Fold this sequence. Notes:
Elements: H1 3-9, H2 16-25, E1 35-43, E2 46-54, H3 61-64, H4 69-79, H5 85-97, H6 103-113, H7 118-128, H8 133-142, H9 144-162, H10 175-188
Antiparallel strand pairs: 1-2
Amino acid sequence: MSIKENWVQAFPQSCAEDVQVVTRLLPRRWFRSTISGTIEIAYWQETLILPSRMYFDEIAEEKIHTLSQSQRWLLYCMYTRHHDGYVREKYVRRLEQEQAKTDWVLLYLIELTGEYVYEILERIEPMLQTWSEEKLKTFAAANDRYLQRVERRIISYWDVYQRTTYPMLWDSTYVGFRIAQFYRTYRAHS
């Protein structure tokens, strides 16, 4: 499967043309894999397949400036799957700065909350609060098992990286547990 096919499957069909525009700008890596692993998520009536990680360099800023707002958000979401945590955080910050509230952005933010970078979790927590309750309930109803997996990953990464700072399981001062509780609220009401 080519890189363009991977990314077309990672966003709603309504974004297909914009995804193709953005993927034309992505750097090519000859003889090496650019994407590792996949994550299936239900998005309304579609199943999206997000890459777990991607392995290529960032595109030049001047190329980013040629993109429409929606195309930039697609690119920023793509880079939230980057293998480098600093790059992931950079593009979460850009989504935050541009107040990206398209539904599919939520999928990429939720996936990031199941990862270990504390600073990214701190950025994402207030962003999650901006989505409507109805959208979150609908997403939770369609993706209960997925959200359970994200919660297990939050706990697992807490155990490895944050347990000495936050020794109590479900300590609400730890951002990861607040996010997991936020998901539980919507899973319970879905």
